[in-house]
Amino acid sequence: MSKALKHDRNDHEGAALAALLRAAPPPTPAPTGASVVLAFPQRAASGAGDLPPPAPGLRARLVQGRAAVEALCRRVELAPDLASDIGSRTWWRGLATMLGLGATALAFCPDFTRVEAAAAMPLGPREREEFRSQSIAPLAYGAGSGRRMGATPRVHPLAGVPERPAIQLVSTLAQGDSLAQMLERSGLGAGDAARVAQLVAQAVPAGELAPGTPFDITLGRRPQAGAPRALESLDFRARFDLDLAIRRQAGALVLERRPIAVDATPLRIRGNVGAGLYRSARNAGAPVAAIQSYLRAVDKYLSLESDLKPGDAFDMIVSYRRSAKGERQVGELLYAGVEQGGKPRLQLVRWGKDGQMVPAGAVGQARSVPVGQPVAGRITSPYGARRHPILGYVRMHAGIDFGAAYGSPIHAVAEGVVTFAGRHGGHGNYVRLQHGGGLATGYGHMSRIAVRGGTRVRAGQVIGYVGSTGLSTGPHLHFEAYRGGRTINPAKIAIVARPQIDGRERDAFKARLRALLAVAPGAALAPLAPEQGPGQGLGQGPGQGGGEQPRREIDKLAD
């Protein structure tokens, strides 16, 4: 028995002794000099001559039982604090009490089964059928709408029913579908479908119709019973600057061209670099695709982390087209510039058949360009001697390892010719490129190769994907550089790029640069055409027939 239980028992015995003293009659004062004897009440011994005590009633027995339970609860603590005296008898007794109460609660917990209940009113077959006929339910469950009657002798079948005089529908050109097949599925006859395709080909080549183009079709009456409906009209958007309509006039189909006024002023966006180039460009309203193209172009010549300062200015120009109907089209990046201290630091112009971004300061002359990073990742092992993770001894690491996710694209750091593409010993899947000036680069441990030997690749082209083939402990790219057949540190190489513009194109390139720099920022957002009066606003393009538009009553009062 623990010390706590002993103290509790002593306390209870002391309390019981005090109660007996309070219940005992006061002692009779004894004469002086006599000894004092305290008489405590004793339980009467039941002898042969004693009378039996009266039998207690039900109420008395309940009181006595309750007192016994209360005494037990005072003596034994059934619900102690389980956070103290962990492992003692008192703690185990409290744990048993908690588990017992929890089991009792779960035993009396009701389940969630459905309770069958009788209907408020018994329904016969006729009543159920009546309710079913007037209810709303899916057709698959045998629903009916309203009462139905069987046919009587007065009901005669119809020999024919009148058709709708015209049907209007919208059909969409699917990927890989032809215009004639789409029209025939929409209900046109083979003759009308072929005639429509012939008329449309006179205005727009069939290959230029973009998949997903909607066609508003109106079909008229049938020329005879069982024949396809005749085409009454067909309207669709053939190009960004052209609407086409086909109408039936005097029994023949006629093509109507409706040109749409389009403004092709480029969109120029300027601003300060601030805390971040991307966020500053987005706050200036630049499209996400244009910002990504701008960052890729500038990153080849400037470091986005160290060369750009918060006070520098960015300048980008993208192709932009607006139609008189309100549509907008954002095209590719045309110009990318960086200004430092109010002077141009970098000017790139899209030029040539390949659409490369050419720096304005290197027109007609060769230039040395530092190579970029071949894959999006971090350097996990630099160039130099190291302990090989698989072989276990120190040897020369003739390249740089870039840790990247499996399947990440690998880009060529410069223009070159593929001299090897295949399996290459410990390099696994390996690609080697030969650049100008006796410089070559190698890319190892690829999961898949995307080029073939002997082909020419341009800078930034995907040549493979990150893997873990060969002697590799995980997905990464092993990047090497060679000069004269010997390995060198890839972090210190630069590519001498040949001139991208010769002397004959120099004047045209400079004229293009001057034309782009002459575009004012926000000029592409100006109104497309000035208001010319009621009913001739921006929504009216050439060939759309402006006409008089309904005027509001408030405008009439103003006159």
From TrEMBL:
Cofactor: Zn(2+)
GO molecular function terms attached to this record: hydrolase activity
InterPro entries xrefs: Cell_wall_metabolism_enzyme, Dup_hybrid_motif, M23ase_b-sheet_dom
Compositionally biased spans, kind Gly residues: 534-548
Presence of keyword Iron-sulfur: no
Every M23ase beta-sheet core domain range: 395-490
Biased composition regions of type Basic and acidic residues, renumbered to the chain: 549-559
EC number annotated for this UniProt entry: 3.4.24.-
Region (Disordered): 527-559
SUPFAM superfamilies named in the record: Duplicated hybrid motif (SSF51261)
Protein keywords: Hydrolase, Metal-binding, Metalloprotease, Protease, Zinc
Pfam families: Peptidase_M23
Protein name: M23 family metallopeptidase
Protein's organism: Novosphingobium soli
